Amino acid sequence: MDQLFPSVGISVVRILEKLGHTVDFKQSIFCCGQPAFNAGFWDESRAVAVRVVEALTGDEPIVLPSGSCAAMIKNFYPELFRSTAQAEAAVQVSRRTFEFSSFLVDQLGVTDLGSRFPAKVTFHDGCHGLRELKIKRQPRMLLERVKDLTLVEMEDQTSCCGFGGTFCVRFPMISTAMGETKSTFALETGAEYLVSNDSSCLMHLQGLLSRQNRKLKTIHLADVLAST
Length: 228
Prior knowledge:
12 helices, Rossmann fold, alpha/beta
């Protein structure tokens, strides 16, 4: 987020502060460890993830504008740290972790942020958010309350974009084909923007769209909700 999509982090902070919350960002955290975990290098993943567990001890909710990172911490940290000295701490961190749209809707009961985004958009469900965290209605509830925004659903809402972290590096041809299929579904809606709550998906799809000289632009949900 800080390297490629800093505006998303800024938007999340602005939204939470607008709602009256204080945001504490731990600069010692730089990765959740998911790339190594997904590739089967659990020891290497644990060496990175332990810094997250140690930095996020406490009682406050942990909010992430990324379905993939949120799923890693919430669903897989207890497994990754099982039978280690950090096992209980990992479980506690897991219980306090929420994806951004889910936190707004399910924990705070907020669906209307007074946002305005005059555009026609379609929404892409990232695999980890949809399949691991069961998040689907929350981002749509938020988008439906944005003034002057028209949400048009894709014919296929649930297919993967093909990024998959290290998957796109190991299997570039398959990844590209999946991304092109997803891009076609998005383009068929006639939308101006492709919105998602996972920046990794947006990075992959924007790369494909740009190389095809398509006018469809990608944008993170948080940036839409921060617009007025």
